[in-house]
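Thread: "does anyone have the structure for this chain?"

Original post by V.I.:
We have the sequence but no experimental structure in hand. Need at least a predicted one for the grant figures.
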Amino acid sequence: MMKNILVTGCAGFIGSNFVSHYLTEHPEGNIIGLDNLTYAGNLENLSGIPEDNKKRFVFIKGDICESGTVEEVFRDYQIDGVVHFAAESHVDRSIEDPQVFLKTNILGTFLLLDAARRFWPRKTLDFRRFVQISTDEVYGSLGPAGYFTETTPLDPHSPYSASKASADHLASSYHDTYGLPVMITRCSNNYGPYQFPEKLIPLVIVRALQHEFLPVYGDGKQIRDWLYVIDHCRAVDRVLGNGIPGEVYNIGGNNERENIELVRTLVSVLRDETGDQGINESLIRHVADRPGHDRRYAIDSSKIRRQLGWIPETGFQEGIHKTVRWYLENRGWVERVVTGSYRTTRTAD
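Reply from O.Q.:
Generated one for you, tokens below.
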């Protein structure tokens, strides 16, 4: 049984949701959270951990790109498993400044893998696990039909997705070369509480509440598959506990939507929830498309359903309403953790 789990990026959007989920579902387990608290990570994201569970959580501020920090964590806390969320993940930022993406997503992943290789004796590997959290963006772009499977060749089209594809190859190589018990998960677009307002859904929510224009790239007909974050956390938990080393698991929500359709849905839900008639489709503004913008992502998650018994439990309409209500009830969170950067004209999917 894995007792001490290292969760990197624990104060980010998905990482913080995973920490809360794992501590609730595994009363015997401890989490050591490592996060550098960059712009998208904030300790307030962890404030929802129940008091009874906080004694099993240790937070460490540190950079996965510093070898000394990574080694110290493995040595001092006798790490049994790793769930590696930490990453630079915003495509627009990767186009503007690719170097930080290469450093964090490739070098940081290497240092974690190599620490696991050195600190985990070979005879104990049956009881260890390393989960590399990746993205469907490494597969590239789909046509109007078909789905990404775990055997779809990688074809990244942005510095972000290229850096994640590189990290995935590194993770696979450590399994093949050293026998490290590595598994890779590739998820579709996540949404839900604590997502930093540079991503499409929280960006639209925050800007619409201020009656600011809602930027949509190009014709807005790019298609994404949307996955509620708690469903993603449940899937990662299944992979950590029951996944097969060396395997890749796709995690999708089976909720394909055009970006423009999603924005219109958010406008409608926000108007209904607030009664504010100033939130309407006249706020939508089409802007120049992003370079190398993938047209469609869609995940075939039949493997994780078949092998590990996971299914998404949150329907799209339910998830969108829950997400909108969370942002409405936590407007102070936006003001406290975001220092104006959400007022950018960036959009994302």
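V.I.: this helps a lot. The longest helix spans residues 98-119.
O.Q.: and The domain at 4-192+228-255+295-313 is CATH 3.40.50.720 (Rossmann fold).
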